[in-house]
Amino acid sequence: MSDALLVGDTSVAAAVAHGRDALTAAGCDTPLLDAQLLLCEVLAVGRERLVLDREDLLSDCVRERYEALLERRVAREPVAYILGRRDFRRLGIGVDRRVLIPRPETELLVEVGLELPWGARVADVGTGSGAIALALADERPDLVVEGFDVDPDAVKVARDNAARLGLRVEFAVADLLGEGGYDAVLANLPYVPSGVELAPEIARYEPAGALFAGVDGLDVIRRLVAVITVRTPRPGLVALEIGPEQADAVSVLLRDAGFGSVTVRRDLAGRERVVVGSC
Ligand SMILES: C[S@@+](CC[C@H](N)C(=O)[O-])C[C@H]1O[C@@H](n2cnc3c(N)ncnc32)[C@H](O)[C@@H]1O
Hints:
39% of the residues lie in helices and 16% in strands.
């Protein structure tokens, strides 16, 4: 790290300030918050303790462990990978470099799932950590949820999450989805156009297979729409997470595939992020 290492007597407040400065110099977006989260992790306390105990001195062991986590963040490793988890809806989802870190906008797909009728059969395609499927199983235990991913490592992470959280979801390795009949298909598949430059946190650490999908980013989504269009029985609803510029193209795809009603949902920033087609 560019900054001097923490030495001698270091208070909680000084450690936070040191972390904030190091992460600011490294170009991180939220340096103070990140430093606080990393120190909380090492101390195994909530953030309020950093204020209440601000004059307390760190032990050598805590100081060294904190420095080690800061080093990783300075190299722009996402905080979620460093901590090994990310909160999603009501769940703490375990994550590592095998899976994409669940994003807040993906909750829009969960909200679509929550509106399904009692007992609906749902496929979460490109499940990754299992976040969408597990959130649905948690909030709507009547739904029959299955999660699919082409990457066996991702399926292992999803299964580990299900076991740790005690939630009943079947996860399987599949290109797109399994053979079952589904009332609804929810998918956050890769949709970044190839060649797009991403933040170091994403480009260096998140799996490329979870991100990129051809020149316009729609290669995998296009294939999914083609596959479910010829399914018997055909799912009555499909909801697809997209990049903000892709809503028009994906709406056309779904209309051409015969979905009579196509709507677009926006994230909290007002950007178009999910296209929903229903029969
Ligand atoms: C953007 S990540 C989404 C992960 C998770 N659903 C989430 O929202 O956090 C896309 C996931 O789709 C998977 N994937 C890519 N191509 C696929 C395919 N043809 N069939 C199934 N899964 C695929 C990737 O391995 C990755 O886990």
